[in-house]
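Hi R.,

Here are the chain sequences for the assembly we discussed:
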Amino acid sequence: MPSNIVLVTGVSGELGGKLLARLGNNPDFERVIGVDTSPPPKRVIARMGNAEFVRADIRNPLIAKIISSSKVDTVVHAATTAHPPGPARRSPVKEMNVMGTMRLLAACQRSPLVRKLVVKSTAAVYGAGARSPAVFTEDSPLMPVSPRGFASDAVEMEGYVRGLQRRRPDITVTVARFTSMVGPEVDTVTTRYFALPVVPTVLGYDARMQLVHSSDALSVLELATLRDRPGVFNVGGDGVLALSQAVRMAGRVELPVPMAALPSVSRLLRGAKLVDFSYDQLKLLNFGRVVDAGLLKREFGYTPRWSAREAFEDYVQGRALRPVIDGRSLSALLRKLALPTTNEHVPPQ
Amino acid sequence: MVDRNPVSGPGPTRATSVKHVRDEVHEAQVIPLRSAGSQRRRPAADVVAPRRDAAVVDMPGSAGVPGQRPSSEPTSGLDAGHEDLVPDAVAKALEFLRGRLTGEYDVDEFGFDPELTDTVLLPALRVLFEKWFRVEVHGAENLPIGGGGLVVCNHSGTIPLDALMTMVAVHDSHPKQRHLRLLGADLVFRLPFVGMFARRTGHTLACHPDAERLLRGGELVGVFPEGYKGIGKPFSARYKLQRFGRGGFISAALRTGVPIIPCAIIGAEEIYPKLGDIKPLARLLGLPYFPVTPFFPLLGPLGAVPLPTKWHIEFGEPVRTDVEEGDAWDDPMHVLSLTDRVRESMQQLLYERLAQRGGVFRD
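And here is the predicted structure of the full complex:
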């Protein structure tokens, strides 16, 4: 049975807000309700069509009332932040991620009308380290890097989701584990990182990065809302970029920092309110993480339209990032230097 | 239901088309320069600018380039008319540098960078392979021409030079120049630079998911089932195969139905004759052992130079695994007996080759 009344959480966030606008413009839905503690950005409100915004906190029991009184049948939980882009205090985020999810899922379990749950999760649940396999599949063990990071929140959250699945087997549950998201408009820790003129990397390591374009991420959440696609799916674009390669594509200056000194560099960046490097993020820069998105193509039925390279190029061009080091002109210069005979058109001075 | 999905937003074409345009702009800048240079050829003496440039050439990256110029042979049609101006090697080196500087190269999901491996890393290893160890390869016809295969080798030498040499051996003696993808211990990937080098050259962690993924992808995978027990064994135990692990590699091959190729490496066992082991120091550094050889740590860095032994790498008869019944990998008895069979044939290969060998250092 198709969804009719949809509730989207976390609509002040990047993905949640865009999803609200997409669903709000879809005439097949009777009602689309977005909830969050703060209203979505103005550009989202201007485009959200029939969707409504309710200022509510999912940590508050009120959320159960909203779900039951407006006869919600589909809940899209996009409020979880695995990696806040900017400096964020740990406890409110954890509170929202874990306590909020608990409340929301409890409300879903109580309301007999809820038939579908879509959860936005993160590929960070797999962890990253020297002992990790090169490519994670959906059934790889979930081993977050540290017991206190945002990734461990996501693992905890997925645990609650499995609990709900066990208690309410009639609910179709889709969990999407997203890799690092980039795009011309989104604000994520990855987009902030590559916008730094000097990019700190880990000395002696070159992480493998998998990226997903924000429009692909949005399409996956949207399709999961529209169709019934139960299961856990890794969401990532095709192909892999090496971190050093991405730094060069963006024309940034790479600053290799020994692993031991990296926490202080990350504190510095955090203090300067530039980008928030959690411990999870440092490990990602150290070892990288690649997931197998085959299940997404085969069973979910969605092939990401942007490969990692295309997504990254789109981000670099969409942001109009001015290269600090221009690889193209540098190589042209090298060519001139190495082949001086081709320079003969230069008039003698 | 598809029509309900208003998947919009710009497709990938936009980004790539912009990139192509930028490329063309660049070509357009470069090509006329070259043809203009050939048409109006002037003596370089009366031109000031090129000389100034030539003095600046002494920079990293371009430093080694002028030396390669005499060995030029034009191949591309573009440069056909100016063979003396744009030597092939220089053009290739520049093209490579350009790719490196702009990030236009591909790495696979394991971090394998074939371009870098073929242009920089393999030639460097080849010097060691040809000049220092004078490796002789036997039985390369036993390697599968296409499709997956599991090469099982003996491990020795304190430092995994045998792994690197096997990689060169497979690449250079295989008719299709295939890359051997090795499975390494987690220590390899924990160490800075070593781990990066290993990923770049296509190696990955020795674990079930990675091994199966590579084998299913039709890659030639190399394993050293003895692990630390083999590479860190004392000199007195040379050429004695140590206990194999849990036979995980055999079940991976059985699951994927790829042939197992036993491989014997002769000569690597004597490069660093390990006489002792400083255990507390190893613990302090987080290493499995801290070797003491006749020259190391006595002679310091000089002692770290491997002895120039004569090497032989022999690939034996492949053991087929696709003839087994359905779930042979699920039968521990079967897996263990197959492990023993592979181990026996490797030990056999080692003894035969050792009996034929003239001397440790003699060609």
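Residues 1-83 of chain B have pLDDT under 50 and may be disordered. The beta strands of chain B are 136-138, 149-153, 180-184, 204-205, 220-223, 260-266, 276-277, 291-292, 312-315.

Let me know if anything looks off.

Best,
T.
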